[in-house]
Design brief:
The chain is of the alpha/beta class and 181 residues long. The chain contains seven helices and five strands, in the order βααβαβααβααβ. Helix content is 44%, strand content 13%. It is globular, with a radius of gyration of 16 Å. The model has no long low-confidence stretch (mean pLDDT 97).
Length: 181
């Protein structure tokens, strides 16, 4: 059985303030660093097998991955395709803003200088296809460390969703999910 794990980065100040982080490079809070270390301890304590960690280049995910790698001894490598979606003019605005809620339901919208949902899906689906091939041929188990928007795309790779379910989907900071191909 081929599978991988996914986690969202630790807490950031914009998570606390309910702002859209997107492609803006926001650091972890002190709690975010703690969450990442605790996830590493959980992986180690539960004997969760991971061969390699791939992480988004944004510092909140990179730092989370590095904490997990330090605790578990698993090697970590940056993967550019895991970078969060660029929400263009909506970056740093309220996550629950009415205008953003409407814009985010338009999957071909690139938010005035950002990245459309369709383009994001293409790069994440391509990454998942690559991971699947390696998992099936070599048995490699990855932990992907990225963002809430990426979690939504990954969920849609495995499960049909309505637009409303897709828009509402999310995971908590440093929540660990297992996906089976």
């Amino acid at each position: 059985m081929a599978y991988f794990y996914f986690t969202r980065h630790g807490q950031t100040i914009w998570n606390v303030e309910n702002k859209i982080c997107g492609a803006t490079d926001i650091a972890l809070t002190e709690l975010g660093h703690t969450q990442a270390k605790e996830l590493g301890e959980r992986i180690k304590a539960e004997g969760i097998h991971i061969d390699k960690i791939l992480y988004s280049p944004l510092m909140r995910a990179a730092d989370t991955a590095k904490h997990i790698a330090e605790v578990t001894g698993v090697s970590a490598e940056e993967e550019m395709r895991l970078k969060e979606q660029n929400f263009g003019r909506y970056e740093s605005t309220p996550r629950n803003g009415a205008e953003f809620s409407v814009a985010k339901a338009q999957f071909v919208n690139s938010y005035d200088g950002g990245e459309s949902m369709l383009k994001l899906s293409q790069r994440i689906y391509n990454l998942l296809d690559d991971i699947k091939k390696e998992a099936e041929s070599e048995g490699t188990v990855y932990l992907l460390v990225a963002h809430n928007g990426i979690s939504r795309i990954i969920e849609s790779y495995f499960h049909d969703m309505t637009n409303e379910e897709f828009a509402a989907f999310g995971i908590k900071n440093c929540e660990l999910r297992k996906y089976e191909f």
